[in-house]
Amino acid sequence: MAISYPGFSFDITHRDPAGSKARIGTLSTPHGAIQTPNFIFCGTKAAIKGLTTEQMRDEKTDIILANTYHLMIQPGADLVAKLGGLHKMMNWHGPMLTDSGGYQIFAMGHGSVADEVKGRRTTTREKTLLKITEEGATFRSYTNGEKLFLTPEKSIDIQRKLGPDFVVQLDECTPFHVDRKYTARSMKMSHRWGDRSLTAFKEFGGISANGLPQAMYGIVQGGVYPDLRKESAEIVANQDFFATAVGGCLGATREQMHDVVGMAMAHVHPTRPVHLLGIGGIVDIFEGVALGIDTFDCVSPTRIARHGWALAPGVKGERLNMRNARFKDDDTPIDAECGCYACRTASRGYIHHLLKAEEMLGMQLLTMHNVHTMNRLMRDIRAAIITGTLAEARRKWVWQAGDSE
Amino acid sequence: MAISYPGFSFDITHRDPAGSKARIGTLSTPHGAIQTPNFIFCGTKAAIKGLTTEQMRDEKTDIILANTYHLMIQPGADLVAKLGGLHKMMNWHGPMLTDSGGYQIFAMGHGSVADEVKGRRTTTREKTLLKITEEGATFRSYTNGEKLFLTPEKSIDIQRKLGPDFVVQLDECTPFHVDRKYTARSMKMSHRWGDRSLTAFKEFGGISANGLPQAMYGIVQGGVYPDLRKESAEIVANQDFFATAVGGCLGATREQMHDVVGMAMAHVHPTRPVHLLGIGGIVDIFEGVALGIDTFDCVSPTRIARHGWALAPGVKGERLNMRNARFKDDDTPIDAECGCYACRTASRGYIHHLLKAEEMLGMQLLTMHNVHTMNRLMRDIRAAIITGTLAEARRKWVWQAGDSE
User: Where is the active site (chains A, B) (predicted)?
Assistant: First the structure.
């Protein structure tokens, strides 16, 4: 029996008249509808680092996520349910997603998540990931070393208790250094885990612990291999998911990542929303959008803010280092066209001072700015899709050789 | 020639009908008027740690301060002036005070400021305070060890550039362990520094670098000695200050502090506003208000928030430790009657989780709560002065033996 996903819908309202696969959609949830393409901000431990949810809304945020892996360990899914679920606990009343927990289990077992997905490092397995079997993954808690066991069914049950709108199936996030044979075997196991996730989801009726319907993403794996990506995308399209996520190893370079995403996108379910896991670079978003990706997530915009970096359109490397002494006595805002709280109220010189003085407020102002900038980027992209001017929007946002630095 | 302090006034509008020396005043500045008694929050390095100035206003804050000592070192007074002065730089448009820098120079030379003022520790002089002479104080920068020299004239010039409404004369903040002879000699030098501060202030016309008038506080010293406190208060009352601050060593115990403040208050200028430096405990504020103190400042409300403590009326020790496991699954707000952003949107259980997870947001929510609570305390106190019910207000706010814990 098919899952109906009551309260959820995805309507593709526009396609790029200039010929790319970019599209505009309306993604509706029990917590409201958002326009896509859109960016999902990471509230890993049920908090956006440094901002209240009110500030997130003030900076025009539509959707956020939280991480099952962190929350199952601290404070635990039952406690989140007791506090009313993630929406109530965090005071976030818009759409929300949780991942399956798999990403961090495997990434923390293998090394850095981003390094693995982006192929920047090969590491041997470390102690936190103890064992992967058909049944599930055994790993150690990052807080107290306790041995934990996560299965597809447990992940779905945890996400039912956490109560987001969107839940994600458990998968094995294959590292960069594994070979084709491992990738193929792992991919097939992930799809069996997808079937088990759907069965578990149906068993509880797709209703969260706080009584609202949820919708599930399946994950396309297959590493850097075109035939495996095709096979994986087709399997997921035939499973009873509401939406599709593209995960796993996306290659060693930015160019390879674009190729790998393209391999999957040629075969995903055509009318379901598609999420690209863990990618948030401005140029990568333009590439992804042109391939038909509807949503993105990445810790980068908020994380680099805490290290003193401000995202800015048309800047080399996509960001300004606000700790640079050249901003010391600069009384202009980071970006006069931005409109975020930081750009309306603070000068570059003041932000530079706050960073040098190690004042939390410096990180907070930059987080607001980067959140606002990502949301502005996505608005610009949506407007450009409708008018067929994605190339011009990209020209404005992405620095290229010959531009000033 | 007397200083006129244009743009400033202090009008005592009510006195406690129940007989204490408590009073209500309207303290007017070029950045607006506030009602007293009131509490001044510490924005040490030109930032309230963890909150935007908009959030400070949302939590009903009337007045803040910044520290000359920190700002003269980083980013420097000239740079603050170049960025438009403290009000513009910080986006704070209400009344503001800077201190003279002396407090930190001497306290960091002698050990912890609070410990010294409150007599909790005797230390020998450390290296940061190198020399005190009639001319001024030589000390080392806390950032790079550079040798710096601060005189009364330099302090006034720095505060002119920083541009707050209220400036404070340089004084020697005598430590607890010095004897009566040292205290008397130091007090007299501080008053000569007061004269020099007033002369310097008159020379630049009492107008800040950004063109607005400023008003100056003189400081009453005299340690724990009644005759010295009397002499000091009378000297300051006869100097041409706009307002009075009570500083220096206030004794070894809470009781002695109340005695020492009383010694000074019997002799201060009767119609000038009086500030009590560095005191912010709830019971201390009730004591100070009853002695006629108009304003208080202390890092405590915002500092303890960052360590996980929530101020609350009628609670033993004046605060709740939100890291305590008993709050783990508590879905009620810190204080249902509070009305701050944290109490409107977050449960104790969520705040407990954020603190355990080391999320900045936990500190931020508690800072909002403590700021709001101090402002609510001061509103309650002002209302109680008018109705002669300070004893009842104190009974509500201050825990006493026999109350539940």
Answer: 99, 297
Assess B91–A contact: CB distance below 8 Å, yes or no.
Answer: yes
Give the gyration radius of chain A's Cα atoms.
Answer: 21
Rg (CA), chain B: 21
Which amino acid, residue B296?
F
Whether chain B has a CB inside 8 Å of the CB on A346: the answer is yes
What burial letters (b/e) apply to B134-156, b meaning 16+ CB within 10 Å?
eebbebbebeeeeebebbbbbbb
Please give the average per-residue pLDDT across B21-40, as a whole number: 98
- Active centre residues of A (catalytic): 99, 297
* Full-model pTM: 0.95
Q: Does B69 touch chain A (CB under 8 A)?
A: no
Residues 6+ away with beta carbon under 8 Å from B402:
none
Residue B94 near residue B162 (C-beta atoms within 8 A): no
Q: Which two tokens stand for residue B306?
A: 């960052």
Which of A74, A353, A366 to probe by mutation at the B interface, max B CB count within 10 Å? A353
Task: Tell me whether residues A52 and B84 touch, CB distance under 8 A.
Answer: no
Q: How many CB atoms lie within 10 A of CB A180?
A: 13
What is the C-alpha separation between B64 and B97, in angstroms, rounded? 7
- Examine the predicted complex and report whether its ipTM is higher than 0.90: yes
Confidence of residue B122 (pLDDT cuts 50, 70, 90): very low
Nearest chain B Cα distance for residue A89, angstroms? 6
Backbone phi and psi for residue B111, each to the nearest 5 degrees, phi listed first: 135, -160
Within 8 A by CB and 6+ apart from B8, the residues are B28, B29, B30, B165, B213, B215, B242
Give the tens place of pLDDT for each residue, B316-353. Answer: 999 999 999 999 999 999 999 999 999 999 999 999 99
**Which domains occur in chain A, in start order?**
36-305 (3.20.20.105), 309-397 (no CATH)
A66 touches chain B (CB under 8 A): no
Q: Which residues of B touch A74 (CB under 8 A)?
A: 353, 356-357
